[in-house]
Design a protein that fits this description.
Elements (H helix, E strand, L loop, with lengths): L2 H9 L4 E2 L5 H4 L10 E5 L4 H13 L4 E4 L17 E5 L6 E5 L4 E5 L4 H10 L2 E2 L12 H7 L6 H4 L6 E7 L5 E4 L13 H4 L8 E8 L1 E2 L3 E9 L2 H15 L3 E8 H10 L12 E9 L3 H17 L5 E4 L3 H12 L1 H8 L6 E3 L5 H15 L4 E7 L4 E7 L6 H22 L18 H4 L2 H14 L15
Parallel strand pairs: 2-4, 3-4
Antiparallel strand pairs: 1-2, 5-6, 6-10, 7-11, 8-9, 8-10, 12-14, 12-15, 13-14, 13-17, 16-18, 17-18
Bound molecules: flavin-adenine dinucleotide, (2R)-2-hydroxypentanedioic acid (2HG) and zinc ion.
Length: about 475
Amino acid sequence: MSLISELQTILGTSHVLMKGDLSAFELDWRKRSKGRALCVASPANTQEVAQVVKACVAHKTSIVPQGGNTGLVAGSIPDESGQQVLLSLKRMRAIQAIDTANLSITVQAGCVLQEIQEAASHAGLLFPLSLGSEGSCTIGGNLSTNAGGTQVLRYGNTRELCLGLEVVSASGEIYSGLSGLRKDNTGYDLKNLFIGAEGTLGIITAATLKLYPKPLSTLTAWVAVDDLERCVSLLTQSHQALGAQLTGYEVMNQFSLSLVGKHIPQLACPFPNSPWCVLLELSDSESQAHASQQLENLLSQAMESGLASNAILADSLQKAKHLWHIRESITMAQAMEGLNIKNDISLPVSSITEFVRTTDHALGQLVPGVQLVNFGHLGDGNLHYNVQSPAHMPASVFLETFEDPVNTLVYQQVKHFGGSISAEHGIGSLKVLTLPHYKDPIALKMMRQIKVCLDPLNTFNPNRVVMID
Ligand code: FAD
Ligand code: 2HG
Ligand code: ZN
């Protein structure tokens, strides 16, 4: 029997797509890479995933897992061969259980992040993972990329939010690790191999995640700051004043906010002429009044000491949402401006100012008139140091001529300052050839050994993260 016929038998004909417009599955979110799938297979449950894997292995066919296809490193689309099965987890979106005493939730991998947040909230609890793509990304994708987002400062990356996983292995066996245990020292921590593996080691089919008590009040401020150095000093001051109550600290340069103003004009931005803005969030478990007092004190100190040039405090939930919406729209606004280079980098917070100063200068020499879309999660040392073509240069010309030299320049700088070339988006196919230049060779060797051990036939997402000879 052909593989397609086998998949149709396992899943039903309507869940094996081959014809029609498959671009939602084959084109990456940034519209920079397009592949072609043998078919799009959509299982309904874990057993079906296991059967699909066994069938593909028997036919020596590789599998590309996909959740919401919002990844930014072209890791969730098939290659151009037309020979890979795209495995979409989107039908597997059940919330399986909420355990309020254990503060945990168990969900299928295709659950959309926002639905998990809402389910937690209905139970009076908080699932803190929060990203601009939360309306369409899935928890399987979040786990597979170890996604970060805007609450990492307080709650950690997706890795820190995961208690257990269910995974279909490369032999089609089901590893049932959905314990909600917070302590389990019975050997290697297998779940952490699959988290951040970008679908190269197994298919995540379900997860048990941590929940938290909801904070009593959450307050948001928007602060105008004259330079990045002051943004870093204000971060230090915020840590000192707010401690664990500081739940978000985002920075945005003027150009990144101007793109939001240009392409999404309904999102009016406070202090549009400020060189930098900071979005600061405090979550408090005492009272609204206590939270307001603390934040007001911090902001007035910042103004008095010259760290901030202006500041507003959102006085309603709606205004706070508006401010977050501006911040989370930068990615979309940048996409509307045109194709671009993304550098999702992390550095010690103490080195960020010097990194930006020297890299901005060197890039200006390399590409006169280059436009820097610079923003990110400063509290985590994670900058989205993105690069847009000079105003009058077509994006295609810019990418063709400058993508490699720009990347090399930025990554060399990252290396010099002791940072990482991927803070939260992963490696995918975009950076798979770059990684060996910047990753410790022994670490890379061990990564390859793990890949070969868990997926000896290279069935899962080949040529992403690590290349196997
Ligand atoms: P996909 O894009 O479908 O897949 C991502 C990777 O995971 C691929 O390698 C895929 O093969 C693999 N995969 C997917 N599901 C599974 C599974 N069940 N089992 C095994 N492998 C699987 N990222 C951040 O970290 N922080 C942000 O703040 C952030 N903001 C974003 C804002 C916007 C507007 C956009 C478009 C993207 C943003 N991202 C961010 C990137 C992206 O949303 C995240 O990487 C997200 O975790 C991907 O989830 P997904 O379901 O779309 O995964
Ligand atoms: C964010 O923080 C995302 O908004 C996307 O990680 C970053 O567009 C980007 O480069
Ligand atoms: Zn980010």
